[in-house]
Amino acid sequence: MVTRLAPSRARLESTLGRLRFPPLSDVVEKRPSQGRNLPVLDGVRGLAVFMVVASHTHAFGMRGHGAVGVWLFLALSAFLLIQPFALRPERALEWRSLRSYLARRVRRILPAYAVAIGVTALVMRFDRETLVRHLLFLQADGVLWTVPQEMLCYLVLPVIAALHAVVSRRSIPVTVVGVAGIATLANLYLDASVFSLRGNYTELRWYVGIFLTGLAFGTAIHWPPLAAALGRKPVARTLGAVGMALLAGLFLSARDFVEPIPDSVPLLGRLHGPLGWSHPGTFGVACGALIAIAVCCEGSLVARLLSSIALRALGVVSFSLYLAHVLIRDRFVDRVEWGWPLFSVTLLLAYAVACVSYTWIERPFLRRREPRGEAGAARGAAAGGFCHDAAARAPEE
Questions:
Q1: Lesser CB count within 10 Å: N end or C end of the chain?
Q2: Which residues contact 88 (CB under 8 A, 6 or more apart)?
Q3: CA 335 to chain centre
Q4: pLDDT per residue over 264-305, tens digit each?
């Protein structure tokens, strides 16, 4: 079956690559600023935005407000962004590298975010003060609440990278254990009473613990003994099976348990709501593990599923699709039935809007060239190879 499907998939990818429509051609031809593109990671993005839209339209029994999809986005951002620093930790101590890193973060987020705020302000009739607070990341309502979370997390990454270079002296095990410990403390104790971000008219906790978990997994894959272990087929097959279990578990747990389960039922008696919100730290670990397995076990079933063209097509435009889908959904809430009908209408129209945004807003900024010296450093940073060279080919988001 796989053999028969392979030629068809190759022909489809070849056709997409020849198109002059960036949202489709970039599914197979995307060139990131650093490294080489990994299709499986576009698929992870696609899965994340698929789960968010499904949750927000109550499709597949999901009513969990998109938590699991958001944690996937956050862990994936960290996993990708740490790659150049994990390969060359001293970059965290170089002003040129840090300036380039921060500039790419601004170009990646701000253009589409600013347009989304402008449209949202017109629809929701923001006053001037509210609009300014949104633009300065001091407030974020609706799905925009995740953007200040990420922007603040981006400032943490160079600090962790610098500690990896100076304190742990490039010892990957020491860095991973340290970052994992900080992530655990953040998940347990860093709630809104300690530090909060304004969003959806309340004080939200900062989910930096999930971001740190992604950093830990993104660093761990560069440990040579781990890479050697992953080169053994029995280990790779076992991890592939674990990845499939994680994928199924994340998808199923994104469902809301509407029907109460009796408290007398062991373990299941506590499943009375969206698990992603009640256990973000646990789900952050599951998301980070799934991403690492998908990258390092390229031939596994979970990697092949996440590399599907449909998920990759969603992943290429995932940021704009995420920003647009609730505004589009709200236009049809009173006219289309919740569940599959509303999900289908929302996803189709949001994808069309996202294609426009990606082509004329996101992509022009993303394709801006780096200074020659920095580009050369990036190529040098991506020259190494661990986990069957998958980590070295992972792009910076």
A1: N
A2: 377, 380, 381
A3: 32
A4: 545 444 555 567 788 899 999 999 999 999 999 988 999 999
Angle at CA of residue 179, ends 200 and 78, nearest 5°? 55
Distance between CA atoms of residues 40 and 119, nearest Å: 32
Rounded alpha-carbon distances, angstroms, from residue 301 to 229, 238, 241, 297: 19, 11, 8, 9
CA dist., res. 144 & res. 116, Å (int): 9
pLDDT of 189 higher than 90: yes
CA 187, CA 57: separation in Å to the nearest integer? 28
Please list, in sequence order, all residues whose beta carbon lies within 8 angstroms of the beta carbon of residue 96, skipping any fewer than 6 positions away. Answer: 371, 373, 374
Domain ranges, ordered by start, for the chain: 37-258+270-393
Alpha carbon distance 286, 38 (integer Å): 20
Sign of CA dihedral 69, 73, 79, 80: positive
Token pair, residue 305, equals 């599923």
